[in-house]
Amino acid sequence: MSINWFKYSSPATFYPLAGKMIPFFGWLTAILMAGGLYWGFFETPDRLSDQKEYYRIIYIHVGAAWMSMWLYIMMAAWALAGLVLQTRLSFMIAKAIAPTGAIATFLALWTGAFWGETSWGTWWDWDPRMTSELILLFLYMGYMALQSAIDDPRRADRAAALLALVGLVCVPIIFWSINCPDPNECAALHQTSNPGGGNMEPNILIAMLVTALAFWMYSFVAILMRVRNIILERERHTTWVKELLEKNK
Amino acid sequence: MKPRQKRIVFAIIAVIAIGVAAKLIIASIDAGSSYFYSPKKVLAGEAPTDQVFRIGGLVKVGSMQRIGKTLTVEFIVTDDQAAEITTHYTGILPDLFKEGQGVVARGRLRDDGIFIAEEVLAKHDEKYLAPEVKEALEEAHNEAMNKKEYAQ
């Protein structure tokens, strides 16, 4: 039996598949977010050894920060797949990821500012972690700007894909800005992150991982919905889109 | 080579180039200018003392005091027991500022070796534990260390 690996790489077959997946991920988002936040607010200590209630920003902040980096890697990977395999759908997915990634990055910076003001005593500082995360936001915005500045979608896709690939350099820098190989050289205001190192109350860790997973599921929902819109927009001249629109009139 | 194979080779080269670039940037950040300088580095003359820079370390336990009846506080920033920098700061200290806690201060080194801070930020660690849990863990750690010493 031969498997058709490229069955869902065509926009016409992917469109209905995405439509079926959206409610599934939507429900997962709602359940995980509600469960994670409940756990985080009611089953965890009110104060830590050195922080007070405000440490609970962690449940939004960490999920958003992880997604900001992970979505950039995914966006660059789809852009690369588009350049190599020249599949239209790959570029469409890359384009659909960018706004969600930008929102996650903004959310990480924004919640981080609140956390920083209460704990460190400042909204913003040019610390390596924060500076590199801000550059990531600019990369997302640059990708979207370049994509919309070129009228021909094929040229826009290829130009933006190159930008996404070059910008990929930023992700390891964000990661190692606080987890650098030599801890003595690692000078940052931001605390290091080591969720598995036994430094976290198990309940806090569980709530944080569940909300982070909820962010992941939400990203699937948002990206699939956006990719469906992009498919309709770009394939509007094809017969299957015309038939679909006729049917839903 | 077929066009597709050419593009795959291009992709591999691109990813390797990105990896090398990231590695080089990280290495240069590690080696070059630091976000803050430890007291040891400042005393060794590695910090740019002719301009504004940051020092980072722990607030030495028992070193914090108010100077006269002013708003200026004096405390010692230390990294290990040897290197210490006396710091002056006028203003409101952040909530987490405590003796024994991490701190990052931005300012200038005066000629007499006192660091005049314009801004003082408190660091916090990556431990998210309730106070009693942290105490219990530290106690267990100390006990284990004592036993080890005893055994030796």
CATH H-level homologous superfamily name of the largest domain in chain B: Nucleic acid-binding proteins
What is the count of DSSP helices of chain B, taking H or I runs of 4+ residues? 3
Distance linking N and C termini of chain A: 40 Å
The radius of gyration of chain A is 20 Å
Name of the level-1 CATH class of the largest domain in chain B? Mainly Beta
Question: In one word, what is the shape of chain B?
Answer: extended
**Most extensive interface, chain pair and sizes:** A-B, 50 and 47 residues
Number of separate structural domains of chain A:
1
How many DSSP-defined strands of chain A? Answer: 0
The rounded Rg of chain B comes to 23 Å
**Could you state the oligomeric state of the chains shown?**
heterodimer
Give the mean pLDDT of chain B: 83
Percentage of β-strand residues of chain B: 25-35%
- What does the largest sheet of chain A look like? none
**How are the strands ordered across the major sheet of chain B?**
1-3-4-6-5
The number of helical elements of chain A comes to: 8
